[in-house]
Amino acid sequence: MVKKGLLYLGLIVFGIIFSIPYLWMFSTALKTAAQVLAYPIAWLPNPIAWTNFSEVWKLTSFPVALKNSCIITFSATLGTVFSCYTVAFGFARLEFKGRDFIFMLVLATMMLPPQVTYIPLYIIFKRINWINTFKPFYVPALLGGGTMGGIYIFLLRQFLLTIPRDLEDAARIDGCSTFGIYWRIFLPLCKPVLAAIGILSFIFNWNNYFGPLVFINSNDKMPLTLVIAMLKDQQGVQEYNLVMNGALLTVIPCVLIFLLLQKYFVKGIIMTGIKG
Amino acid sequence: MAKTNLRKNLEGYIFISPWIVGFFMFIIGPMSYALYLSLFEWDVLSPPKFAGFMNYLRAVKHYRFWTSFKVTFYFVFTTVPLRVFIGLVLALMIRQLIKHKLKGTVVFRSIFCLPIMFSGVVLGILWAWIYEPEYGILNDLLRRVGIKGPNWLATPGLVMPSIIAMMGWWIGGMMLIFLAGLLDIPEEMYEVAEIDGASWWQKFIRITIPMLSPTLFFNFTATLIQSFQIFGPIYVLTRGGPANLSLVYVVNLYREGFELFHMGYACTLAWILFAIVIAFTAFLFRTSKLWVFYRAR
């Protein structure tokens, strides 16, 4: 009994400590400018400034940034999921010379700091006019999943390896081609794994800062991460309610995904950690 | 109808071809180019000047390089153990909830995992606001108990601890992985130990830690690699200041390449980072044989 009480006590204490930052963010996001500077600090906004949302909307040309974030995120995520599945299928179910060696290379890329490639990529992309487009984001995604591809390919391969060979053999006896097996038989079986990878990829791309910072330099192509960072720099302390509001808006999609699809997200994270 | 080897090879390579193309275009290509550029001085506007190993010498002599080195090492070797520790403690607590079928698992898991939904930018922005000397909540809480809180991000001795504390909040992923590893430990092991009269400490040291060691290894290594590359939160929070006291390696790299336009030198810095990450990863893998225990397959 005592142990149970202590456990909950510990969890509640940690819970409060962990919650304070985002409760503070939420509270500030709904404050009026006057309340932000209130002294002593008001913990709850009063009145609740719902208009902050529309102010931030206009101030940051939010719709444009939102559109950009969506384009980058959806194109990169779809590209990643499709490409990683294809490649993983190759590694898991097909036999070809050099397969295991190349797979080791895939694993090795997981250790590569992306920044090592970004400087030369910037120069290369500049030459071929990819700077300030979204190509630096979805093209690498389509070609092996981009910087995070190694992990996803590894996960998918491990999962695909667990599917019994009998299924494949039966399909081949019925005259199914390799492509048919890849597309019509194994793909539906992978749905939960693909969902988890899709979620992880979505969050990574939605929150990507360094990439857009390097490859995008005009305001009309900036995604939310860049716009929010700029907002913070431009606004003084007295406008921090707007900055927090903007930040709140940018995290809503990922937070929603987490709260609603927690099952898949947790599964995805677990799969990256557990030895296959 | 048996497939010829050629047919099999062709099929296999067709399927993995996206990755191979991507590998050459976006990894091998740029990295080789970066290695090549690291031998030049180039400010993008004028043609590159060959400089041989000058860039590498320059790195060794440049004070900002060593500062960023020191700061990054300080950052990595404090945040990694801290985050591993916090993640483990929280995971242990939540495991207890699950084991004893108590209520609140989803709630608490959500509370601790929510921060990782925030981008690095939002993390920096939020904590800049928390640390705000006049209007931030930290100093407000201190004020209420009569302490005058300092300017956390502008005081030399407090900048890094403030950043480290911020990173301690960002541990959701680590916790989930630990939780999964913990739940994987067979219950029977604990039951047998209890029959033999083991205390909770003995159970922890003799069962939990060894069985968890692959997960520990993974978390430690992954976070280490990630921490060497940290950029977003710190760039937004302090830009590397004050006086370069929070100048982590990649912030310096970014500054040299994209603010000062020392492209060749930035490539040098990038390759040095790569070498360091490889060295540490290799070291961790080598020493893992000493303390990581894999269950017999």
What's a quick, concise take on this entry?
Chain A has 276 residues and is an all-alpha fold. Chain A contains 15 helices and no strands. Chain A has helices at 2-29, 33-36, 51-59, 62-93, 99-109, 115-127, 135-142, 149-161, 165-173, 178-189, 191-206, 210-215, 224-234, 240-260, 262-273.
SSE topology:
The complex is a heterodimer of chains A (276) and B (297).
Chain A: H1 2-29, H2 33-36, H3 51-59, H4 62-93, H5 99-109, H6 115-127, H7 135-142, H8 149-161, H9 165-173, H10 178-189, H11 191-206, H12 210-215, H13 224-234, H14 240-260, H15 262-273
Helix pairs in contact in A: 1-14, 3-14, 4-7, 4-8, 4-11, 5-8, 11-15, 13-14
Chain B: H1 5-37, E1 40-41, E2 49-50, H2 54-61, H3 63-99, H4 105-113, H5 120-130, H6 137-144, H7 156-168, H8 172-183, H9 187-195, H10 200-228, H11 232-238, H12 249-259, H13 263-291
Helix pairs in contact in B: 1-13, 2-13, 3-4, 3-7, 3-8, 3-10, 3-12, 5-11, 8-10, 10-13, 12-13
What value does the Rg of chain A take, in angstroms? 23 Å
User: What would you call the structural class of chain A?
Assistant: mainly alpha
Count the E strands of chain A: 0
Rg over C-alpha atoms of chain B, rounded to the nearest angstrom:
24 Å
Oligomeric state of the chains?
heterodimer
State the end-to-end CA separation of chain B: 36 Å
Which term fits the overall shape of chain A? globular
The mean pLDDT of chain B is 88
Number of helices of chain A: 15
Mean pLDDT of chain A comes to 88
The count of helical stretches of chain B stands at: 13
Estimate the global geometry of chain B from the Cα principal axes.
globular
| Count of β-strands of chain B | 2
Strand content of chain A: under 5%
Spatial separation of the terminal alpha carbons of chain A: 38 Å
Biggest beta-sheet profile of chain A: none
